[in-house]
Amino acid sequence: MLDRVGVKSLDDLYSDVPKDVIFKGEYDLPAAMSEQEVRDFFESLDSKDEKLKVFVGQGAYDHYTPSVVPYITSRSEFLTAYTPYQAEISQGTLRYIFEYQSMICALTGLDISNASMYDGPTAAAEAVKMAPTCTKRKSRVLVSSSLLPNVIKTIQTYSYYHGTELTLIPCKDGQTCLDSVKAELARNDVAGLIAPSVNRYGIVEDLTGFAEAVHGEGGIFIEYCDPSALAVLKTPAEWGADIAVGDGQSLGIPMSFGGPYVGFMACRNEYVRKLPGRIVGETTDTEGRRCFCLTLQAREQHIRREKATSNICSNESLMALFVTVYMSLMGPKGLKEVNDRSYAAAHYLHDELLKTGKFAEVFDKPFLKEFVLKPLMPVERLHIKLHDGGFFAALETEEGYVSFCATERRTKAEIDALVALVKEA
Amino acid sequence: MSKVIEGLRYSEDHEWVKVEGNIATIGITDYAQKELGDITYADLPEVDDEVEAGDEFGALESVKASSELLCPVSGKVVEVNPELEDAPEKINEDAYEAWIIKVEMSDPAQVDALLDAAAYKAKIGE
């Protein structure tokens, strides 16, 4: 093959790489393994895994992944490394992205969805970056401190390098303080507000009045959502949000060491040209047949260069496929059932934990599948007890609360076993 | 052959300027609209925005390109063509009829530095 391409050695192919950046040391790699040895190696790694029952959420939820989802997503037609450069040659890929976008629009009630983002926190950061572009002239964005900590940190990182000024809005009774929002808006330099529909304490926020207040001062309202919960909660469109973002992990993606997850991002029609990322549109080919294409590409980096709305020029395609297959399988009825069962499990857990007398209630607010309590014992002791009993639960928060979550996967027997351990702690 | 109108002034970046008092009406030339092809979207400034000569005041998107609009004069935007939001193709239909913005000039002498019709014709080689 080297003869055929006209070079003497493999190294000749790298002759354009400057000599001083080429690594010259010995590679510290273990010896090659046989197939049997590789299998043994990974089995030994796997045996180190603790198969704990997950009673924690904080942005990643242990919902059930029906076996059809990995079966379809691992088909070789889908499991390719990258979008081809001539995207339209892959009608199957564009088709499922189009279906994904349509489902995200149905969930959020908004007009347009992009083809997906890396994850929820980066989608939130991109949405915050959109606010000054959508509103022009205004530069400051309000960030609710009831958002998940990793979401706030990612927004801060992106905004620092992009020059967007942020103001954290305090919580009142565990939810975004509307009066503080109004006080900041009065300064007349606010481009937008980002607040969660379900917050870091698991509370389902009452967002009445937020969109009106922000719109009244010419800003935009961004809602951070758990898409699974949108099946039963008021949609971002119903709350008057202009942009909705969140992590699609709760829609069938397993919790595999924190990723890969997938961010979703949807907005109202009027902001479509400020929306980052790829968008798949429906069109017809030269023979009038329905087909799909990438559309509105003039927003994107390969055309607008440094003036592009974002430097994202790909999407989290395989994970978007996960979400698409999951949602097709569940439908609105299935998603509602997931929420009903999660709600029942979480509320039973909440009430049983309080009955032990080992915790105090922090907020008396509506919650769905997640909540925080104040521990009346050393958290360390609780953690050891639960961990030894096979549970991952009671995650300590920055505020010194402990966070619990129960999805539809948690059975009454599991909950009773956890509560029994708490009683002993 | 692209249309060039006598009496208008032209920038090196293919914008035309029509001066009435201290108000400059600005659009892109027929030559520029032909180069761009079918215009699908106009990203425009807002009334009261301050613009500087040589700075970007918006962008025109055609099917697979996006071009920045550079302002030939400094001043304040006093009017934006409302038709372009829904019908940017009007620029393709008649680039001199479909003006883009009107600017109240802060330094009307900047117009003198712009090209006249003959110089612009020479620039585009027609």
Give the radius of gyration of chain A.
24 Å
Shape of chain B: globular
**Amount of helix of chain A:** 25-40%
Q: Main sheet of chain B, how many strands, which sense, barrel?
A: 6 strands, antiparallel
What number is the mean pLDDT of chain A? 93
Uncertain regions of chain A: pLDDT < 50 for 5+ in a row?
none
Distance between the termini of chain B: 7 Å
List the secondary-structure elements of chain B in sequence, H or E.
EEEHEEEEEHHEH
- Termini gap of chain A: 68 Å
Query: In total, how many beta strands of chain A?
Result: 17
Shape of chain A: globular
Keywords:
heterodimer, A: 425 residues, alpha/beta, Aspartate Aminotransferase, domain 1, Aspartate Aminotransferase, domain 2, 2 domains, seven-stranded mixed sheet, four-stranded antiparallel sheet, 13 helices, globular, B: 126 residues, alpha+beta, six-stranded antiparallel sheet, three-stranded antiparallel sheet, 4 helices
Describe this structure in words.
The complex is a heterodimer of chains A (425) and B (126). Chain A is α/β, with parallel strands linked by helices and 425 residues long. In chain A, 37% of the residues lie in helices and 16% in strands. Chain A has 13 helices and 17 strands. The mean pLDDT of chain A is 93. Chain B has 126 residues and is α+β, with helices and mostly antiparallel strands. Chain B is 17% helix and 36% strand. Chain B has helices spanning 30-36, 83-86, 90-93, 117-123; strands at 9-10, 15-20, 23-28, 39-43, 50-51, 56-62, 65-70, 75-80, 101-105. In chain B, the strands form two sheets. In chain B, strands 1-2-3-9-8-5 form a six-stranded antiparallel β-sheet. Chain B starts with 8 loop residues before the first strand and ends with a helix. The mean pLDDT of chain B is 92.
